[in-house]
Amino acid sequence: MFYNSTRNSSIKVTSAEAITQGISAEGGLFVPESIPSISLDEVKKLGGMSYADRAAYVFAKYLTDFTDAEIHYCTDNAYSTKNFETESISELAHLFDGTYMLELWHGPTCAFKDMALQILPYFLTTSAKKINLDKKIVILVATSGDTGKAALEGFKDVEGTQIMVFYPEHGVSPMQKRQMKTQEGGNVGVCALKGNFDDCQNGVKEIFTNEDVKAQLSSGGKMFSSANSINWGRLVPQIVYYISAYADLVRSEEIALGDKINIVVPTGNFGNILAAYYAKHMGIPVNKLICASNINNVLTDFIKTGVYDRNRRFYATCSPSMDILISSNLERLLYLMTGRNDEVIKDWFGKLSSEGKYEVSDDIKQKLAEEFYGGFCDDSETKATISEIYKKYSYTCDTHTAVAVKVYEDYKRETGDTTKTLIASTASPYKFSASVLEAMEGAVSELDEYAMVDRLAELSDIPVPSALADLKTKPERFNDSIEKASMREYVLSHLL
Ligand SMILES: *Cc1c(COP(=O)(O)O)cnc(C)c1O
I need a labelling partner for 229 at 20 to 30 A (CA). Which of 38, 147, 239, 279 fits? Predict the structure, then answer.
């Protein structure tokens, strides 16, 4: 299996090269040259395997330049109870009639990003070895809150790597901020940016592709790679859990082998839902992919109209990991939907960066409508949903997951579709205690963030994740906060 760039289809690299480079030199994203298939028989067999073995099975179809031993080295290290609080790594919870929560937050940072970022450092260091790279790998991360911490935990003290994370100063929850400021490890750096997530992402992208910066790093024996979901090594682990969840639903006889399911994904950068799209096109029977957004509803409009327009107000919401106006991974979807037309992609994404807007062709609009349903809700609806499902089902969910539940309810009402449905549950409610408590108790809590965690533990069935319980006593190590304009200088002075 080789990988092409979305902006130059003639570029052809191995998975080890795609993973170490992160992004293609001309700014395109790497995609596998074809989508491998998985048969229903294979899916059924996966049901009898551990999560690590399921992952290895799927990876063998994508990372064909890795040996079996290399793949198992990665999966066994990443997906064990050393890093995850449950044996099955991801958990399925039956919420209500035909609706299942796919809990992806039992890892060390309590968000679904761990599913990919626990394994990415192993993919990266293994890839570097395979292509005889003698440079230290420098990871730059732009985060809307969860990626940054998950990447820091994944890379801390991994030999041959160094990591620096930028987050929007006022765009993350207090708990997320504490998690990053207290990060341990000798090869880590964390800095706040006076701007929003898109500013962080644009800044990182600019530094990443800047020839001058690259040359300076290279002479210091270092090179950039990316832990954002533009890196294929972030996406491929996410395909696994959709296949794995389908296998579990069959095994527990909730569905019959071959039955279609809907998948609902609370979406920001379009990485997680793109992984569901890949799972579908590999052969998992999927009816609709439901793309749920908060009030930053650029994707809802895009799915409905075919016009992507980021020229709009940016809102800070109670689901901050979805406060995004540029969904990078949409580029991969459109590349596939246009029949891998790199010229069209260059045109649209050129317009996105010059005018903030592009419109897709009519046949793409039709394909989008066939595969996806897009919906959104605001903060008050998000909180009302948390309260409602707590009262009705005694289930506590976080703000991002609640957006997905609300949009799914709208979808069901609109379409009358009764297909069984998997909802991606992307964070532990404890990570967003303030908003979750406010929703459950009907008033803004006066408690500090740790007392809130304790209060939530009294109300909810879900035990407090040990990683969050430990935060209280950890010293803060990183307090820098800078302007957008000084990002490049900051990176160079800290990394060279
Ligand atoms: C990152 C994140 C999302 C959005 O996922 P994308 O892959 O960016 O679409 C949703 N919920 C939580 C909790 C997240 O951390």
Answer: 38
- Go through the domains of the chain in sequence order and give each one's CATH number: 91-109+233-464 (3.40.50.1100)
Residues 6+ apart with CB under 8 A from 30: 3, 4, 5, 6, 13, 18, 21, 23, 24, 232
* 113 in active site: yes
Q: Which pTM was predicted?
A: 0.94
pLDDT at 145 over 80: no
Query: What does the pLDDT read at residue 468?
Result: 86
Element (H, E) at 448: none
Catalytic pick among 45, 113, 357, 431: 113
Going across the sheet that includes 136-142, the strands are 222-226, 136-142, 161-168, 188-194, 481-483
200-232 pLDDT per residue, tens: 988 998 998 899 999 999 999 998 888 888 899
CB atoms within 10 A of CB 223: 18
The residues pairing with 8 across neighbouring beta strands, listed in sequence order, are 5
**Average pLDDT of the segment spanning 115-127:** 95
Strand 161-168 relative to strand 91-96, pairing: unpaired
- Judge whether residue 270 has pLDDT over 80: yes
pLDDT, residue 175, reads 84
What φ, ψ does residue 481 adopt, rounded to 5°?
-145, 125
